Task: structure prediction
Amino acid sequence: MSLFRTVGFVDPGPSIKGRGVYLRMPVMGDYAVWSSLREKSRDFLTPWEPIWPEDDLTRVAFRRRIRRYQQEIQDDQGYAFFMFREEDDRLLGGLALSNMRRGVAQACTLGYWMGEAHAGQGYMSAGVRALIPFVFDTLRLHRLEAACMPTNQASIRILERAGFKREGYARKYLSIAGRWEDHLLYAILDQDLRT
Ligand SMILES: CC(C)(COP(=O)(O)OP(=O)(O)OC[C@H]1O[C@@H](n2cnc3c(N)ncnc32)[C@H](O)[C@@H]1OP(=O)(O)O)[C@@H](O)C(=O)NCCC(=O)NCCS
Result:
C-alpha cells in the first residue's frame, strides 16, 4: 500500500482520524508508553488474548514487533495501528488488520485491545468506526471480519453498533489464554455501508 511506504522505525506515516481519537502506525518511540500501558492492563487483557510470550514487553521484542508490522505493510499482509486520544496524544490501545486475503476474497480480520484505564469510554467504538473507511476506501477490500468470544459483551456491542452482522459460530476457533475457545463470527461488507 503505497500510502504507507514511508512508515519506518521513526516515521509513522499518515494518521486516520476518528471521533476524539486518531490511529497511526506504531514506531520505536512508542515503546515506553506501550509497554507501561500493557503491563498495567495485563490482568484486564490476558483473559481475552493469546498467551503473551515471556519477553513480550521487552524492548527487543518490541523492535521485532515493529519490524514485523513494517514487513506486513510492505507485503500488504497486515496493518497495525496504535490509537491515541486527540486532546492529549495519550496512547489508549491498538487495532490491527491481519490475515489479508486479496484475489477473489478481498478480505481481512480486525482485532483490537484497550488499556484498562481507558476502557468503557467509547474510544474503541470510535477507533473501529474510523478504521472501516480505511478498509473499504483505501485498501479497497470487500469484507472485514471479526470474531469474539460469546462472553465478551463489550466486543459484541462494538461490532454490532458499527454495523457488523453476526454470521456464525465457530467451535474452538482461537487459542485464548491457552484454551481453545468458541467464537462468534462477524463481518461487515463494503456494500453494507451503502444500503
Ligand atoms: C473490548 C474492548 C476493546 C472495548 O473497548 P472500550 O473502549 O472499552 O469500548 P467502548 O467504550 O467503545 O464500549 C463499547 C460498548 O461496550 C459496552 N461495554 C463496555 N464494557 C462492557 C462490559 N463489561 N459489559 C457489557 N458491555 C460493556 C459499552 O457500554 C459500549 O456499549 P454502548 O456503545 O452501547 O454504550 C476492551 O474492553 C478490551 O480491550 N477488553 C479486553 C480485551 C478484549 O476483549 N479484546 C477484544 C477481543 S475480541
Remarks:
- The CA atoms of residues 129 and 168 lie 22 Å apart.
- The pocket of coenzyme A is lined by residues 44-45, 48, 112-114, 119-125, 148, 152-155, 157-158, 161 (CB under 6 Å).
- The helical segments are 31-40, 42-45, 59-74, 123-138, 153-162.
- The first helix runs from residue 31 to 40.
